[in-house]
TrEMBL record:
<comment type="similarity">
    <text>Belongs to the type-B carboxylesterase/lipase family.</text>
</comment>
<comment type="similarity">
    <text>Belongs to the 'GDXG' lipolytic enzyme family.</text>
</comment>
<dbReference type="GO" id="GO:0004104">
    <property type="term" value="F:cholinesterase activity"/>
</dbReference>
<dbReference type="InterPro" id="IPR019826">
    <property type="entry name" value="Carboxylesterase_B_AS"/>
</dbReference>
<dbReference type="InterPro" id="IPR050309">
    <property type="entry name" value="Type-B_Carboxylest/Lipase"/>
</dbReference>
<dbReference type="InterPro" id="IPR002018">
    <property type="entry name" value="CarbesteraseB"/>
</dbReference>
<feature type="active site" description="Charge relay system">
    <location>
        <position position="403"/>
    </location>
</feature>
<feature type="active site" description="Charge relay system">
    <location>
        <position position="307"/>
    </location>
</feature>
<feature type="domain" description="Carboxylesterase type B">
    <location>
        <begin position="3"/>
        <end position="480"/>
    </location>
</feature>
<dbReference type="InterPro" id="IPR029058">
    <property type="entry name" value="AB_hydrolase_fold"/>
</dbReference>
<feature type="active site" description="Acyl-ester intermediate">
    <location>
        <position position="193"/>
    </location>
</feature>
<dbReference type="InterPro" id="IPR019819">
    <property type="entry name" value="Carboxylesterase_B_CS"/>
</dbReference>
<dbReference type="Pfam" id="PF00135">
    <property type="entry name" value="COesterase"/>
</dbReference>
<dbReference type="InterPro" id="IPR002168">
    <property type="entry name" value="Lipase_GDXG_HIS_AS"/>
</dbReference>
<dbReference type="InterPro" id="IPR000997">
    <property type="entry name" value="Cholinesterase"/>
</dbReference>
<protein>
    <recommendedName>
        <fullName>Carboxylic ester hydrolase</fullName>
        <ecNumber>3.1.1.-</ecNumber>
    </recommendedName>
</protein>
<keyword id="KW-0378">Hydrolase</keyword>
Amino acid sequence: MSTTLVKTRFGMVEGRREGRVSIWRGIPYAAPPLNSRRFRPPQEPESWAGVREAKEFGPASLQGESPSMIFLSDSPVHKNEDCLYLNIWSPGADDKRRPVMVWIHGGSFMYGSGSSHLYDGKSFAEQGDVVIVTLNYRLGVFGFLHLSDIGDEEYRGSGNCGLLDQVAALKWVKENIEGFGGDPNNITIFGESAGAVSVGNLLSMPMAKGLFQKAILQSGTARCKVALATATKMTEQLLSELQADKQNLTALQTIPAEKILKAIEIFPRRALGPVGDGIIISEQPEKVLYEGFAKDIPVLVGTNADENALFSYFDPAWKQMDEHKIKLFFEQTFGSSWTNISQYFAQEEALTKASYEDAMTHYVFTYPAIYFSEGQARHGAPVWMYRFDYGSRALGGELKAFHGLEIPFVWNTLLNPATEKITGKDADRYRLAELMHRAWIAFAHQGDPNNTTLPNWPLYDEENRATMLFNTNNEVINDPNGQKRLSWKEIFA
């Protein structure tokens, strides 16, 4: 048997050998979610006779366009409702049972794919002797339209079809990855942004127990993005916009997908995502984890120093804001939380774009990551924390250590010329990429990121709060920005 011909439970697949790595692209892990399967949990793919070619990426989920995702080079051209495919990179289809890493892409649950050049698994396979899997899952309205309170039992959990797709992919990996040279009992899930939120939610889901053994969360932790009451209200608004009878949801099966995609423009961008339905995920998945549900899982978690710089850079509203408008923007963003959060800025003469970026970075990313790490540590779970401080030299350095910048460093994809517009061209970035890449590989192999290329990286605990700061000089600092941490702890309390 060749190194690219593999028997799965559903049929034979044939990939390509590229250098020292075998690659399979576009393998279906679930049936196409079309017609009667639209807005319903994923079903197993049909078996096929003969050999199925797995040499081209499958289509990404239907989605709009986002300036920030275009900048991050994760704005797919090939999109379709029929999107439930995965891709595999491996040193070879043999019996070596290597560690497996399953990547869940980000994009606010509205954008992105598993086929971006940033997620090229060749380096992991070549340098780390790891099997890499990337996948697509349903996004936006197709992945997170909450019909459970309106439709019949077949729509149960529909507000989290995107997460159920991820579970289906993990089940496929566990059942089939051994044929691709992977170990089904040594699986690490990792993701960034919405992908990290997905990882956090998977950690909190009983149905995902046993499908993975380790987890990495980059710039995101467990949470339901949409509260149940809000999700139901949005569904009713969308059905009205589509002139669909909520007493007869079968009509949703035949409405053109483009019409549905157009209809969600009545909602703010990034409005859809995991629903705290109490069926698939808890109304408070972060609380489930804080109480120890995933205490048996080693975790690597971290954030970037200037997460929100990416979003404000691509928000045209900032070009027209004076001091009064900035204050209103703060109030609109934080809503009922603004009374508490405003105390954080009590000593400042005026609110600015910089103070907004700082607040959003800590509110959305930094403090939730600390809270999650504290919960894991309290239950004795091994957890390592990092902060990515390397400032991009692109765009005049204006974006600093922005959201998503760490991705090409983790994946070691800096040799792709397209990454220069994200990272800049400075030569010191190659050394940092090698060190981060090695840490992620070590974690996949042994459940611990420590290796000979980095300073000793202690476990995170509430006494020392050891945090690896990734930059041109990597170092471990205890409780970095401790005063800010205490301020945000008080705000969240």
